[in-house]
Amino acid sequence: MDKSVHKKPSILDHWKAGLTILALLIICGASLLYLLIHNRDPQVILNDVAQQRQSQQIDKNSVTTLSADDNGDQIIVGFTNQNRLIIQFRERTVGGYRIKGYRETALTSLKANRPYGLTNIVKNKRVNDFLYGILQPNQPIPRFGGKKMSLINYHGHRLYYGFAPSAKNAVVSFGTK
């Protein structure tokens, strides 16, 4: 007859299992916290900026997310309830996004026809800058590099935008051709 010896587990074996489970729970909790911090809703992020800068709120229906490049980086555009435009660049990271910069512009007729740029730097390399501006009512959409720029209409505001290798050197044509 085969008599198998059944060894009683020691207290050290229980501690190893408990510590392993505790370590896994800590790793899961840290991962969840990282994702919550880095993958926030664009509307919430822009609203935080608006409240910090001007004690305003973003109109939740105005938030638009644009793809900035092939890496998944984003440009977020939103209008506040007091005629301000906030544009933000978010770099794609593992599990979410990192805010890389933003620009705030008052929407007035004095700002019309003036191109603005938001420089986008990813991994210490410059990627296409976000070029944008405000148009007056009934004004034709400007051109950049011979092509019409894209347009966002919101509550009577007309925002043209496009991407350029350098916003400083970009020439935007407001003519009809």
UniProtKB/TrEMBL annotation:
Name of protein: DUF5590 domain-containing protein
Organism: Lentilactobacillus diolivorans
Transmembrane segments: 17-37
Keyword set, alphabetical order: Membrane, Transmembrane, Transmembrane helix
Taxonomic lineage: Bacteria, Bacillati, Bacillota, Bacilli, Lactobacillales
